[in-house]
Write a structure and sequence with these properties.
- There is one protein chain.
- The protein starts with a helix and ends with a strand.
- It has 296 residues and is an alpha+beta fold.
């Protein structure tokens, strides 16, 4: 199902709250950690001020794109997997001239509790890629407890991403952060099933070892595509790169393949940065935007 235009437009400029849907035997839940403001023409350098003047529905009152930050909880009975962990227990103010505006975060533990889970319930943490807003709670201790939330859990990264982890330092990941997760990292291979109904696929471009996770059950599938796209508007413009893309041409090629898959019957997408429309379907060629919010 889709949301009416007025409701959809409001959701395009606010961060997502807790949202769940059922896939056969699996339940998937977006668990918010916080949100970031992105300067649109700097974060998506293929765009111009004119583009955003034509699409004001995607911008908040200050003229920023609103990017949700959080993780995707996948539950199979008593078992639970978490895909990405948000930015972690800290926030940063906007810096003049930066493509990144204010970031506020730290809500993931409370979100897990609202979803009925404790950190100890998470048997593995799958980090789509080594950027600071995807592994925050993996390498930052909980200020209230003084310990890592997921110290008991395997931390899954693709083999190429972990083998070339030195490249993550350019995006703000410190050697101390990498050392903090090193004892818990388990590398995964393309096509490997990492949890019942959850398979990893290599999707290099945004980073050298960027991963997407394909979640299948009950004749449907959900593709959690990490940072392959940052804005729903990229579903209409897959040629637009994102500023942090390691290999923009390869990232764009993957986006085009991804959009073809997202148009297939029974397929849902999960865009973790997509404001309050994190779950959606792609329907190109119609009168409206290609990304259509999905409620389950």
């Amino acid at each position: 199902m889709t949301v009416s235009a007025p409701g959809r437009d409001e959701r395009l400029r606010r961060p997502s709250g807790l949202r769940s849907l059922r896939l056969g035997e699996l339940r998937v839940t977006y668990v918010p950690d916080g949100a970031a403001q992105l300067v649109p023409h700097l974060w998506l350098p293929g765009t111009t001020g004119e583009v955003w003047a034509e699409h004001p529905e995607y911008l908040d009152e200050s003229g920023h794109l609103v990017a949700s930050i959080g993780g995707l909880l996948v539950e199979h009975g008593e078992r639970a997997l978490l895909i990405d962990t948000g930015f972690g227990p800290h926030s940063v103010p906007a810096q003049p001239g930066s493509p990144l505006g204010a970031v506020r975060s730290g809500a993931l533990p409370a979100g897990l509790a609202r979803a009925g889970r404790r950190p100890e319930d998470i048997e593995a943490v799958a980090v789509t890629h080594l950027h600071i807003d995807h592994g925050g709670w993996a390498w930052h201790p909980d200020p209230a407890e003084g310990r890592f939330l997921f110290a008991h859990a395997d931390h899954l990264l693709t083999r190429p991403e972990w083998e070339q982890r030195h490249l993550a330092e350019a995006s703000g990941i410190t050697r101390e952060m990498l050392a903090a997760i090193d004892p818990r990292v388990r590398t995964v291979e393309d096509g490997e099933e990492v949890f019942p109904g959850v398979r990893v696929e290599y999707a290099a471009g945004h980073t050298v070892g960027h991963a997407v996770y394909v979640i299948s059950s009950g004749g449907r599938r959900l593709i959690a595509f990490g940072d392959a796209m940052h804005s729903p508007l990229q579903a209409d413009h897959p040629e637009w790169p994102a500023l942090p893309d390691h290999d923009p041409e390869r990232a764009a090629a993957f986006r085009r393949r991804l959009l073809d898959e997202l148009e297939e019957p029974g397929t849902i997408g999960f865009g973790g940065h997509f404001a309050d429309v994190v779950f959606g379907r792609v329907r190109r060629g119609g009168p409206g935007p290609a990304w259509q919010p999905y409620e389950g």
